[in-house]
Design brief:
Elements: E1 2-5, H1 11-24, H2 33-38, H3 41-49, E2 53-59, E3 65-73, E4 82-90, H4 99-113, E5 119-125, H5 129-137, E6 141-152, E7 155-165
Parallel strand pairs: 4-5
Antiparallel strand pairs: 1-2, 2-3, 3-4, 5-7, 6-7
Helix pairs in contact: 1-3
């Protein structure tokens, strides 16, 4: 498996994987499939080229995009020492093979090598035990819980907030 930074050339494949993630696991993301599907491909290209955001893709042995994560530096003088881990997803058919760990490791390494980033933050659905366990093993520490963070139909989902101090 290969991990690399995604570029505009990867936009179609990234969009397809993101839509799949939103359709199959809507409780894991703040965006909805309907919202994302309505956006033109040009917005995906812009996301992949946005300043302060690095998207990493994990490719399976056949060269197909099978996982993703984005690292987004926070804006403003008082918050630029922080970055967020967002849009983490690994396709079910490749789970358990270390791709999630590799993707998260790449994002952490990028953050460590970026001057001024001292802390990484993320939110994880409290029902997503495998993701939560991955984050814990990579050094993230829970610091709070938001009840009813997401609402899908009549169901609410809580999110745990986690941090990894880099310096």
């Amino acid at each position: 498996m290969e991990i690399r930074v995604l570029t505009a050339d990867d936009a179609e494949e990234f969009r397809a994987l993101r839509l799949r993630a939103l359709r199959e696991e809507p409780e894991a993301f703040g965006s909805s499939w309907e919202e994302e599907n309505a956006r033109p491909l040009e917005q995906t290209v812009a996301r992949l080229q946005a300043e302060g955001i690095t998207a990493f893709g994990g490719f399976d042995d056949a060269g197909k995009l099978a996982g993703m994560v984005r690292l987004r530096r926070q804006d403003g003088v008082k918050a630029e020492h922080k970055a967020d881990i967002i849009s983490m997803y690994v396709a079910p058919e490749v789970r358990g093979r270390g791709l999630g760990r590799m993707l998260l490791g790449a994002a952490i390494a990028q953050a460590r090598s970026t001057p001024g980033i001292e802390q990484l933050l993320l939110a994880v659905n409290t029902t997503n035990t495998p993701a939560r366990n991955l984050y814990l093993t990579m050094g993230f520490v829970p610091f709070g819980r938001e009840p009813k963070a997401l609402k899908i139909g009549d169901r609410y989902f809580d999110e745990d907030y986690m941090a990894l101090v880099l310096s």
